[in-house]
Structure formats: C-alpha cells, structure tokens
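Researcher: We're reviewing a set of sequences before deciding which ones to prioritize for further study. For each one, I'd like a predicted 3D structure that I can look through quickly. This is THAP4-like heme-binding domain-containing protein. If possible, include the structure in token form so it fits the rest of the review sheet.
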Amino acid sequence: MDGGVGRKVVHPAVEPLAYLIGTWRGEGEGGFPTISSFTYGEELTFTHPGNKPVIAYSQKTWKLSSGEPMHAESGYWRPKPDGTIEVVIAQSTGLVEVQKGSYDAENKSVKLHSEVIGNASKVKEITRVFTVVNEELSYVVEMETNLTDRQPHLKASLKKL
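Model: Here's the predicted structure for THAP4-like heme-binding domain-containing protein, in token form for your review sheet.
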C-alpha cells in the first residue's frame, strides 16, 4: 500500500480480497429442474478504484458453440473489517440482488446469501460461494424458487488472465 511505481494502492478494507482483483475467464455449467442443462464461457472482472472501500464487479457469459452473448451482471462488493461483506448485483434480466455474507481471506473464500431479490416473481433465494484454490476461481450458485427448494443452478472454474 505504499503507492510506489507499478503498485496500485488498495483501500485497507479491500486488502483481504485483493487476490480477486483482475480478470478471470473460464467455463461453467448450469441447470435447474425447470430448464435444460447448458454450458457457457464466462469472464468475471473485479476492479478497485483505490480510494474507496469497494470492489466493482462485472460478469458476462456466452454460448461456447457460437460465442453468442447469454447473461451479464454487474455490481459492487463492499468488504467490512469484521469479515462480513455486502454485495449488490444488477442482472441483465432485470433482477437485482442484495447479498450479505462473510469472507475468509486466509482460505480465499466468500459466502453470500440473498437478503433482497428485486424484480423477480419466481426467485425466492440465491446463494453464491466463491473460492480460489491453486490460482483457480470457482463458484457455485444455488437458487430457490416458488416451485423448487434451494439447489445448485450454476458452477464454473475460471483462471486469472
């Protein structure tokens, strides 16, 4: 955090999650009882302005076969010094999430659960778990709807570019 040449200053609140900063790319798969299973390519980007206690987040996915865009979302991650985190996400589908959870800097994991899901008539709950192991970022998204109990919906493994 010395601000020296070639080193970006990271806000102290963001420091425990600084390992996320950058662009990650890979592949994932999804499914749910009410939809057909599918695979996708994905890019996640975490950026940090330096002077604010926040990480900007953006995500986009595409069909592996054609490169055609599928889903996109963006938002902000706000880690707190006590190990809790707040995340807001706006999806290209119009759905918005306010997530709360915790992070473990030593084990490079973030666990989130939805506090509020807006503009979603069917989705009742969303959880997201992110982990970095051996320089690979993986996540699992679980979802509950008005017709199904909470169960896996998406999972992916990404490598930092």
